[in-house]
Amino acid sequence: MIACDCEVCTSTNKKDKRLRSSIMVQSETTTLVVDSTPDFRYQMLRKNVKRLDAIVFTHPHKDHIAGLDDIRAFNYFSKKPMQIYANEMTQEVIIREFPYAFADTKYPGLPEIALNTIAMDQFEVGDIPITPILVWHLKMPVMAFRFGKFTYITDANRIDEGEKEKIRGSEILVVNALRNERHVSHYSLEEAIHLVRDLGVSQAYFTHISHQLGKHDIVSAKLPEGIHLAYDGLELNV
Ligand SMILES: [Zn+2]
Ligand SMILES: [Zn+2]
Predict the structure, then answer these.
(1) What separation in Å is there between the alpha carbon of 97 and the centre of ligand 1?
(2) Ligand 1 centre and the CA of 64: distance in Å?
(3) Which residue numbers in the chain have pLDDT < 70?
(4) How many whole angstroms separate alpha carbon 94 and alpha carbon 113?
């Protein structure tokens, strides 16, 4: 956190240095990211990503969409618009926040976006099948996504029973766990552990972690078997 000198923010452990939450999902032929955070540009540079087929959005909060303008580099090299997948609520905010990308008169160099609407049905990006799952971020509906045996849930603290069924059977779950204290719109550490048990997933990784949770090594050592803290650069094979 900017200007903070708590033990996490001053830690020299790389795993305590977190950019905003996002994941990249890759198959043999297809690469997508979930959300374009304010750190999107640096995340793409850091991983030397040369090609990106799509961005799939969870919800329109700024920490999940702010980096969208930087797709222009991918537009430039692919000579194609970026395929964006978002529900209607998120699309409205994207159009409002990046109006120049949707103007009638387009100047060269502007981000080029092709909007695709996520309903609740399964869809595909290239050869990657994606099942949307509705979760709740206080009162905001947020899209979680299941990719085969892997499910990603950011920014939520409640899931309806019917939607939980879509997650069960996943082998790996990534879910938000903000801090130890409860929060109005994010799972706390304890609530996230409870959710993992409830869903019966054997491997879970916590993300969207605030500095208030504590240092990576200390918190990790106390977690139950099969539950881990995610960290920037973590790679999982599914
Ligand atoms: Zn949010
Ligand atoms: Zn967030």
Answers:
(1) 16
(2) 7
(3) none
(4) 10
